[in-house]
Amino acid sequence: MVFLGASFFSELLYAAPEDQISSTSPEEVTYCIDPNWAPYEAIRNGIHVGISAQYMNLIADITGLKFTLVKTDSWQQSLEYVQRGECQLIPMLNTSDYRKQFLDFSIPYFEAPNVLVAKAGTPMLQGYSGVGNRTVGIVQGYRQVEYISRHYPGLRLKLIPSEEEGLKQLENDEFDVMVGSLMSVNMHINNLKLEDLNIVGYAEPFDSLAFGVNKSYGHLVEKLNYAIERIPESRKVEIYKQWNNVQIRYSRNYSVMILTTVIVLISLLWLISRNRHVGGYKRIISQKNEEISALQATLLEKNRTLGFLTAHDTITGLYNRNHMIQRAEEEISRFNRFHTTASLIILELTPFQDGDLPLDASTREDTLKVVATHCLNTVREVDVVSRFNGEQFIILCPQTELDAAKILADRLLACLMGHYLLSENFNVAIGMSQLKESEEFPEWMERTVKALYQSKRQGFGSVSVAQ
Predict the structure, then answer these.
(1) Would I find Protein transport among this entry's keywords (predicted)?
(2) Most exposed residue of 61, 65, 135, 372, measured as fewest CB within 10 angstroms of its CB?
(3) Are strands 156-160 and 135-139 parallel, antiparallel or unpaired?
(4) How far is it, in rounded angstroms, from Cα 297 to Cα 285?
(5) Residue 16 has pLDDT above 50, yes or no
(6) Cis amide bond preceding 91, omega within 30
(7) Same fold for the domain at 2-110+210-247 and the one at 111-206?
């Protein structure tokens, strides 16, 4: 039994878009899309299909705009068309500093994670920082190219025409790791039956997709935002479920089918033993059904375990680095949309330097578990606690201003300083900061780390607040 979404997505991609409600004199708006980014969007038989197509149908119903597709052969060509004004907008793309030079953006309406894909046997990668000397394949023109060039200039990149072509090249060992959109990667791996490829990590930042409008047609942004804000949440969930469905397919064992046919033929020749054979077949079918049910239960349990291990630290049971980055990106997105502030607290343990012998592994693990317990007992239910790396812990406080977070940090520091394992073996320092406008997670993290270093310079045992 294997998981796949190939047949389901293929049927959806070739389905006709929803009927649009016509208006007496609609304003015609031309647009371009990524023709090879299913299921997010694609061109099939000359028709725009996918998630963005369904959202555009809803927006057309609300605004009365008439959207006309300008067909292109690649994502790079679509970017060139909208930049030159040969089409007025692109319905589904991320914002970036380069794109803001020639595009105005609507509010985001669809969010999705990006993932790292590699050959089976590749270890789990902690984002781009874990890629190392591997060559990374990425679609030309995607925002990730600009992001990696800015924040990870040491990575070796190989530009590819599309995610589907990139997966084929990855299968042929033309590079080591590929960056792609989760739903698109999952669909192509199943459709192409690339059984030797696995998802090995998340790739920051996640997609926060919006309309990009040529600046000459900036008046359209207000209409698009008006419509996006009025799309019912239930309709958004329905679209997401429709394109994110995963079905189960059972592989057939034809040798068993042939053997069963032979047995049936023999049973017809031996009419006297017919009832006995029929009873035997029923018992076999019942046994196979029980085996299938047992395999399904085992697979479900393993998937749950894998899901837990992917998001949690094995020693403390807290969330790990990947999950914290994901939650922080979500909080930044919420901040940008609703202006609800958030605070970040970084706690780090530093072993005493004057000890006779280094701490043994057992003592270190016990200390980490103590810190985890105190963190969970001190924070609120809405706060997110993670072991970020080594002896460093991060607490994300959603919708929390700096003063309230400072009270929490002081209370946590007092609890930790009073425990014998910490007071006898480690210095404790805490740094914290509040999220600022237009700040991404790396900048927010960097400011908080500077506050942590300030606490260390002051002799540990204190909470420092970033400016």
Answers:
(1) no
(2) 135
(3) parallel
(4) 18
(5) no
(6) no
(7) yes
Question: Residue ranges per domain, the chain?
Answer: 2-110+210-247, 111-206, 254-311, 321-465
pLDDT band at 24 (very low <50, low <70, confident <90, very high): low
Which is nearest to 413 in space by CA: 395, 398, 436? Answer: 395
Residue type, 3: F
pLDDT at 386 over 70: yes
CA-based nearest residue to 406, from 325, 462, 454, 326: 462
Structure confidence at residue 165 (pLDDT): 92
374-378: long-range contacts, CB 8 A cutoff, minimum separation 24: 374/412, 374/415, 374/416, 374/419, 375/318, 375/347, 375/412, 376/318, 377/415, 378/408, 378/411, 378/412, 378/415
| Selection from 312, 408, 325, 424 nearest residue 370 by Cα | 424
Contact 87, 32 (CB under 8 A): yes
Report the CATH superfamily, name and number, of domain 321-465: Reverse transcriptase/Diguanylate cyclase domain (3.30.70.270)
Architecture of the domain whose range is 2-110+210-247: 3-Layer(aba) Sandwich (3.40)
Whether the full predicted model's pTM is greater than 0.70, yes or no, is no
- In this predicted structure, which of 207-221, 397-411, 420-434, 436-450 has the lowest mean pLDDT? 420-434
Which pLDDT value is given to residue 261?
Answer: 76
DSSP string spanning 399-422? T--HHHHHHHHHHHHHHHHTSHHH
Count CA within 13 A, CB hemisphere, residue 458. Answer: 16
pLDDT digit string, tens, across residues 335-353: 999 988 999 999 999 888 6
Task: State in words which class domain 111-206 has.
Answer: alpha beta
Under 8 Å between Cβ of 391 and 349: yes
**What is the C-alpha to C-alpha distance for residues 465 and 443, in angstroms, rounded to an integer?**
15
> Could you tell me which of 431, 363, 425 has the C-alpha nearest to residue 394?
431
Label residue 351 exposed, middle or buried (CB < 10 Å: 0-12, 13-18, 19+).
middle
**E runs forming strands in 162-307:** 177-181, 197-214, 247-249
Q: How far is CA 363 from the centre of its chain?
A: 35
Q: Are 349 and 422 in contact (CB under 8 A)?
A: yes
Question: The tokens 């700040």 sit on which residue?
Answer: 439
- Percent of the chain at pLDDT > 70 equals 89
247 bridge partner residues: 4
